[in-house]
Request: fold
Amino acid sequence: GHPMTWTAYHNLEDILQYMDFLAKSYPNLCSVKTIGRSLENRPIKVLRISNGDPSNKAVWIDAGIHAREWISPAAVTYVIDHLVANWDSETLDVKAIDWYILPVMNPDGYAYTHKGDRLWRKNRRRHINRLCNGVDLNRNYGHKWGGQGASRQPCSETFAGSSAFSEPETKSVNDFLKKSGANFKASLSFHSYGQYILYPWGYDRKVPADHQDLDRVAREAAAAIKNVEGKVYTVGPAGSTLYPAAGGSDDWAKGDLKLKYSYTIELRDEGRYGFMLPANQIIASGEESLAFARVLARNLVNA
Ligand code: 0X9
Ligand code: ZN
Reply:
């Protein structure tokens, strides 16, 4: 068996054990790869869900970049569970995608939030003065690294690190995507909170040339999400809808990897509970995430 449920938040060990369980139990559908190790030597594990058809397009999903955003790994593991358990009855579009899912991109930070500092955001990089630790992994990616909204101060919650991809967590993801033979077309990065669907650019109040395509798919996703429980997700370019912040995974996916569809999803809620979202909202948040994944698959397969 496995230790996962979607009525409580789980620690890193449970999530990793669950991924290994899936690879063992569904060897024709699931495989797990350790793409690197965190600063504190925890594994960075990616689950691939695929019917093995070499003509498939691929989607990259990361979650848990920010340690305290517990709903992100929880919702994404819900998506995994749903896809695997109901694979045969899923839409042809969903089955024609290779899903590459990283539920906990910041395992050290995630473990730290379970050890008492519930609101920790960054990774656990030790700074020389030892007063302030951590790099914001969503400021450490290489597209326009160090620009607006990214700090040079180690004590800042948005410290960008010493250079682009200075952190093993971002470097492992970059190396994996760059070397992977998969046909990646889209990237989803799950965060909380605020209920937003954001697309590039994040580094400035600018939009890419094909922003209308990104906006259209995002609005389809927001409509599908609204059908789950009536929640409203605001759609727009990250830099002007939220705030400019350089070095994010979404800008890297679009700007460096050249994946057409790249989104950051800020899950529930709108601030009532914030990062401390009650566990009884995991399933609905998971359904909202799944709704987005299905809309994306439909658009990719019928492109
Ligand atoms: O600031 C962030 O990294 C994200 N918001 S959060 O509250 N989860 O920290 C938003 C990132 C949006 N994308 C970019 N600015 N590139
Ligand atoms: Zn976040």
